[in-house]
Design a protein that fits this description.
about 140 residues, alpha+beta, 6-stranded mixed β-sheet, 3 helices, about 30% helix, elongated
Length: about 140
């Protein structure tokens, strides 16, 4: 969903927000991310328009930063909310200089660090998740025998 709040009069440059080396001109929220938003973040603001408006405001205010310095898929909003995003180039859309504009695809909302302490170190959190899922599968396979 493109930013509807920005009213630009007599200008030819498309609206975008700089995030690292990407120029974000559009936000897409997956169904999985919408479900995670309602489960983990807010149960009362779960329409796509409200989530996109929230994300646009955070992008415009520079409140969205990379979680890790050298990776560009996990982002931190207001030093609390952990978001996984992917980027793809928008076809036939460039800025005035000719640089490509990007679409930010929100894959999922992992949650808030203030509520889920495991999110403070994502690498150990993911290894814990893999281990717990593997142990669950092992337990289930033992029951079937």
């Amino acid at each position: 969903m493109k930013d509807k709040v920005m009213g630009r009069w007599s200008t030819y440059e498309p609206f975008f927000v700089q995030l690292g080396d990407k120029k974000v001109a559009d936000i897409v929220i997956t169904n999985h991310a919408k479900l995670r938003w309602s489960d983990r973040i807010s149960s009362n603001n779960n329409s796509l328009e409200e989530i996109c408006a929230f994300l646009w405001e955070k992008l415009k205010n520079d409140s969205m930063v990379p979680y890790y310095r050298n990776e560009e898929d996990v982002y931190l909003i207001d030093d609390d909310l952990v978001v996984v995003a992917e980027f793809s180039q928008l076809e036939h859309e460039t800025d005035l200089v000719g640089n490509p504009l990007h679409k930010m695809i929100i894959v999922t909302f992992l949650g808030k660090m203030s509520e889920t302490m495991e999110l403070r170190d994502l690498k150990s959190y993911y290894s814990w998740l893999r281990h717990s899922r593997r142990m669950t599968l092992i337990k289930n396979s033992r029951k079937r025998r």
